[in-house]
Amino acid sequence: MTLSKEQNAALLRSLADTAIAAAQPARSIPQYLPAAPTGRTVVVAAGKAAAAMSRAFEDAWEGPLEGLCVTRYGHQVPCRRIEVIEASHPVPDQSGLAAARRIIDLASTLGEDDLLVFLLSGGASALLPLPAGNITLEEKQALTDALLRSGAAIDEINCVRRHVSAIKGGRLAAAAAPARIVTLAISDVPGDDPLAIGSGPTVADPTTSADALEVLCRYAIEPAESVRDVLSEGEPVQPVPNEYHLIATPNASLQAASDAAKRMAELRNLKTIMLGDALEGEARDVACDHAAQAQRLAKAGKPFVLLSGGEFTVTMKGNGKGGPNTEYLLSLALSLENQAGFSAIAVDTDGIDGSEDNAGAMIFADTLQRASDLGLDARAYLANNDAYSFFKVLDDLVMTGPTLTNVNDFRAILYDPR
Known about the structure:
Rossmann fold, six-stranded parallel sheet
C-alpha cells in the first residue's frame, strides 16, 4: 500500500504524541508517593511541568498538604492546596525571583518531623532565579541571555547557574534540613544527571566556582563585577541526605514511541532504529550526520524510522527566529536534497522549541521544492538562524501548545520508498 504525504505526517505526529503522553505526571507520580510524616507535608515545585506535577500529587495524596509551585507563563494547572505562580522562561523575571525567595523561606521553616516534597522538571533553572551575594536579577538575566546565545551546552550553562544561585546546587536541600526530603523529577537532560535537571536544587554540586569561571572564559562572556565576586568567593554546599526519584525520562518516552512504531510495523514492515536518547551537539551539524546515516540505510530500499532524543544547541550567528528542532530540520532537509521517500519530525516535548510558539516542525521529500516555488532560499534562512520563519511560510510548524511535561526533544526520520 502506498501512503500519502498526509498519512506519513499523521504517523510521525502520532509517534511524537506517544512520546509526550508517556511523560505525563499523572501517569507516574502515584507510583512514587512517600510515606506520610508525623509533621507537616510541604510541596514545592519548579519547572515547565511543575503545575501538572503539583495537581497530580494533590490528587494522589490523602493527608494534609500545603505548598508553592512556580511554572512557565501559560503552563498553569489549577490546584486546590498548592499555590501556583507563573514566571518567565528562559530568561528569568521578578515573578520567578519572588517565587524562589518564598520557596527557600518555606523550606527553612521545616523541622525533623516534617516532609519536603520537591517536584522538579526542566525549566526550573530559569524559574528559580535567586541570585547569590549582591548579584541583581538584571545581571543574572544578562548572564543567562549571554549563555543561551553562546552555544554553550546545557551542562555548562547549569554549572554557571548553580554557582551564582542561592537555591540551586543543593542549597534548597540545605535550607530544608533536617526535614525529610523527597525529590520527584522529570528529566529533560541527556544522561538524566540529577545535578543537571533544574541545576540540582536538592543535589550536592561536585563542580566548583572555578569551573563556572572557566565556562565563561571558554565562551568569551564577561560577567558583571558582582557575578565575578560571587564566583571568586564561592564555597561548596555540604550534601544533605534525600530521596531522589526519576519519574519520567527521555529514554522512557523514546521507548514508548519505538514500541508504537513496532506495532505499526506489523502492517507496514517498518524497521525501527534507535539512535539514542541523549544526543547532543550543534543542531545543524547533527542533522548532516543523521541525513548521511539515513541515506546509507535507504540504499536497502526498505522502510524504516530513525528515532532519537537529547538536546541540541544553536550558536546564534543571524537574527532570525527558531529553536534547535526547526534548525535541525532545515539542515536535514538541505542534506537530504529532496530525496524521495523521506519525511521527518522534530519537537520539544514541552511544546516550545526555543522561544517561539511552536513545538517543532516537519519536513517532507518536497519541502525544498515547495520552498523554491515560494521564492524561499533555504540556505539563507539557515544561515540567519531563521528556521521558524521558513517553516511558518510552508505551514509545516508543529503546534501543540504547552504539553505540561518536558523530557527534552523527540525526533523521527521516516523513510518509505513506496
